[in-house]
Predict the structure.
Amino acid sequence: MLILEKFSFGVGDRFAHQAKSQLAAFQKLAANGVQVAPVWNKSNREHTFVGSEPQSVLDAAESAVAALGWKGGWHVDADHIRLDTVDRFLPCSDFFTLDVADSIGQPASRGDVEEFVRRHPELIGTVTIPNIAEPFATAPIDIEWIAEKFLLAVQHAGKIFRHIAKNKSDGNFIVEVSMDETDSPQTPLELLVILAALADEKIPAQTIAPKFTGRFNKGVDYVGDLAQFEKEFHDDLAVIAFAIARYGLPANLKLSVHSGSDKFSLYPIIRRTLPKFGAGLHIKTAGTTWLEELIGLAEAGGDGLALGKEIYAYALAHVDELCAPYASVIDIDRSKLPSAETVNAWSGVQLADALRHIPGHPGFNANIRQLMHVSFKLAAKAGARYTDLLKANEAIVAKNVTENIYERHMRPLFVG
Ligand SMILES: [Zn+2]
């Protein structure tokens, strides 16, 4: 089994032009004494929207690693894959995020559920987990209900894992199990049951991405009860530490925070909670980098700014269609979206300020930012016109990409 580093950070590079500027942030962090492994992630959905192939992610990562002389670990994540989408990722990924959220809530067979409950008497009664204030008090029916909700999803994860293992016989890959793209958050008790089931299924998961309480909207800060998140995050870490010892899961199993970019109010909580358990972290970001491309192009002015304005005008006219696939992960107040005429009259600095995620900045507009976040398809449609602009304005785009990842994400998470 390939071992995932204790701290890892997922970055997304939709148009395969920013691997170097992303890696520069990891180098800066390493120079500050914190070693974090970059993981370039791209989901099947993103590849489909952009029209790219998984191999392009590996190629971009390899050339960035060579160009900057990166000596640390790094990985390529086949993000949110399922049994029907994993195959084209097999030759060019060493990290697989098994997405089984669709099976949550679909009942496993009666016999499997009963067998699970029989096999796990330790989950019933007073279940004391070190570092969790109140022990769980459970009746057999509670565990049965939780198993009914999650067992089929875990069985599906097992099928995907075995399919990958059969095709990557050297075993050199990392497994993440993701359950975040579902309606309701998982409680720490549910996480415990899920981990017991993953161990039964012999899935050597090194990271698990639960759905946390609160809203993880794309490209903007967390919306929810911070105290409740802190308790849940803490208790999840306690459950993981317990499950590693109790069920023999990989010793480096850690939480993965999906939609992790721009959650500025959570970073101090995560930073102070991890050391209580000596725990590692995987955090997944993606679209935040595409927004930095737009910001850099806006600052560059000229054709870059013009394309940014064009994309905004088109997005505004097609807001329903663009937002529909992301309904549960964006909250746009349409009354706060300025007209295309207004934005067309803006300077590059004004557009950059509206997009750049500095919450207190008078020019910042979280509604424009979210709309542009989901509009990357429009840049894909512009094709070479867009990527040629990225090349022509490489330095100013790179500066924004590196600064965003390092200053706004890594520093509060890993340096403080
Ligand atoms: Zn996810």
Notes: The beta strands are 7-11, 37-43, 75-81, 95-99, 125-127, 136-138, 174-178, 205-209, 254-257, 281-284. The mean pLDDT is 97.
